[in-house]
Design brief:
mainly alpha; Polysacc_synth; 19 helices; about 0% strand; single chain
């Protein structure tokens, strides 16, 4: 299983890397083809759709957890029953999502009064296509969750890798054909259907999975709903953080400022995707550990190990963005997007602590102890919305970013109090281990930042050379001052295996 996770992690990092490179290459073409206004509308639709997705009521994580539980207990009948129940639930939710979307479309004129008639027409068209995509996704997503519960990560990550490559290529193609944003959302719909069908056939014919439609188990449903309700609350809070700002900007400032803010949040998404790869694999593993009686000391070993690795990764990415982010944006999109760097920094830097502790959230789901965290997150999200509505009137899109950052800081503080005093985890030990990673990062970043003030970078080639130089310095610094023996073994172990194979 370790090999499975390692290979899946490698494929995931490759997918994220290719996704970033392809996105960086295609975004200027997409922005220039659509224009700031239509690109802002496309971003707005994605933000609205993210709220429609919340209708899954948190059952997506429940599919993984309860399948993992039944697998661990060798309860085949229970697994068949619960998957039948989930399929019925998700099909009903899909229909509800489509109905809610249609109702919403009829109210766009009053909601987005700052948009003109042409912009509203485009918004309605691409939103309806995106809504159909979401409605179909609900019943289809159950199969990817089941595959995750079986820890078939390699297959899932290969499928995602194909999506990463095919999706932007097809989007650029439809733009070239003149189909604009309508073509882009249509591509997403087509790919989603194809992947959903592939997952179904893998579950049905490769894994021999049978879904049983028996009498509705009310007791089991109550247990599932109790677990899922707080996943839902966390999901709502997450969407308020990541997708409320474009809606508020659209209501108060119009379509064009959304485009600048969208670039900042896009850069933040790149960093999140790179940094949270490992934690995405651990819900099945942690669930099985807890079912088998793992204590807090054993869980803390996993939390610290993954937290330090994530710190090494996010330290490199964020410090690199601080050093080279502004010049990259200027070369990439031009002077008109210069301010996206400042907005991105305000959002990204406070998020480092949450990224490092992301496995804590996964652990709480596995323990079915995620209620308090969900309540904290939701309360802070409401506070963030209030601050955004106040700050946007004074500082514009900068106020949105400041409100987001403030909420993140308060959220991390409250969560760590909960981990320390309620769950009795040794949080001081955790952060002591993390700080050992970050001290050399800060010192190296400070020295390199000072030296870069004497340098002028004006092309991708120059930027690439300096990034490579910084990468070498970062790797050498982390190896010498931050990484422990186990972390070095992760790097050298595969190299030694390759060397031994080449000698035989």
């Amino acid at each position: 299983m370790k090999t499975n996770i390692k290979l899946a992690a490698i494929i995931t990092y490759l997918s994220v890397f290719l996704g970033v490179i392809i996105s960086l290459g295609s975004t200027p073409y997409i922005v220039s083809t659509l224009g700031k206004s239509e690109y802002g509308l496309y971003s707005l639709v994605n933000s609205i759709i993210a709220y429609i997705v919340l209708l899954d009521l948190g059952f997506g994580s429940a599919v993984i957890r309860f399948n993992s539980k039944f697998i661990s207990e060798n309860d085949t009948n229970g697994q068949r029953n619960i998957n039948g129940m989930f399929l019925v639930l998700f099909s009903g939710i899909g229909l509800l999502a489509l109905l809610a979307s249609l109702i919403l479309v009829f109210n766009f004129n009053s909601i987005f009064s700052s948009l003109n008639e042409s912009e509203l027409s485009i918004l309605k068209t691409i939103f309806i296509i995106a809504a159909v995509n979401v409605a179909i996704s609900f019943p289809m997503n159950i199969y990817s969750s089941i595959i995750t519960a079986y820890e078939r990560f390699v297959y899932l990550k290969i499928i995602n890798l194909l999506r990463v490559v095919i999706s932007p290529a097809m989007m650029v193609l439809v733009l070239f054909m003149g189909l604009r944003s309508v073509g882009m959302v249509s591509v997403a719909l087509g790919l989603n259907i194809a992947i959903g069908l592939a997952n179904y056939f893998v579950c049905r014919y490769k894994m021999k999975l049978i879904v049983k439609f028996s009498t509705f188990d009310t007791k089991l449903f109550k247990e599932v709903f109790s677990y899922s309700s707080y996943i839902l609350l966390s999901s709502i809070a997450f969407q308020l953080y990541t997708n409320a700002d474009p809606l508020i900007i659209g209501m108060f400032l119009g379509a064009t400022p959304i485009a600048i803010y969208a670039i900042s949040t896009q850069l933040n998404t790149y960093i999140m995707n790179f940094s949270n790869v490992l934690s995405s694999f651990y819900l099945p593993k942690l669930t099985k550990m807890i079912v088998k009686g793992a204590d807090q000391a054993r869980l803390m070993v996993e939390l610290v190990k993954i937290g330090r690795i994530q710190a090494l990764i996010v330290g490199y990415i964020v410090s690199g963005f601080v050093l080279f982010g502004q010049v990259f944006i200027l070369i990439w999109l031009g002077e008109g997007y210069r301010y996206a760097y400042t907005i991105a920094l305000i959002i990204i830097i406070p998020q480092i602590t949450s990224i490092v502790q992301s496995l804590f959230a996964t652990m709480l789901e596995a323990m079915n102890r995620h209620k308090v965290k969900a309540l904290i997150y939701f309360s802070i999200a409401i506070l963030k919305i209030i601050l955004t509505l106040l700050f946007i009137r004074v500082w514009g899109i900068t106020g949105c970013a400041i409100a987001t950052a403030a909420g993140m800081i308060v959220n991390v503080i409250l969560n760590n109090i909960y981990y320390k005093y309620k769950l009795k985890f040794d949080i001081f030990y955790f952060w002591k281990e993390i700080i050992k990673v970050f001290i050399p990062v800060v010192l190296l970043g400070g020295v390199c930042g000072y030296l870069l003030t004497f340098v002028s970078i004006s092309s991708y080639l120059q930027l690439g050379l300096y990034v490579i130089l910084y990468s070498v310095l970062y790797a050498a610094t982390m190896w010498t001052f931050s990484m422990n023996a186990d972390e070095k073994q992760i790097v050298t172990g595969p190299m030694r295996k390759v060397a031994l194979r080449s000698q035989t």
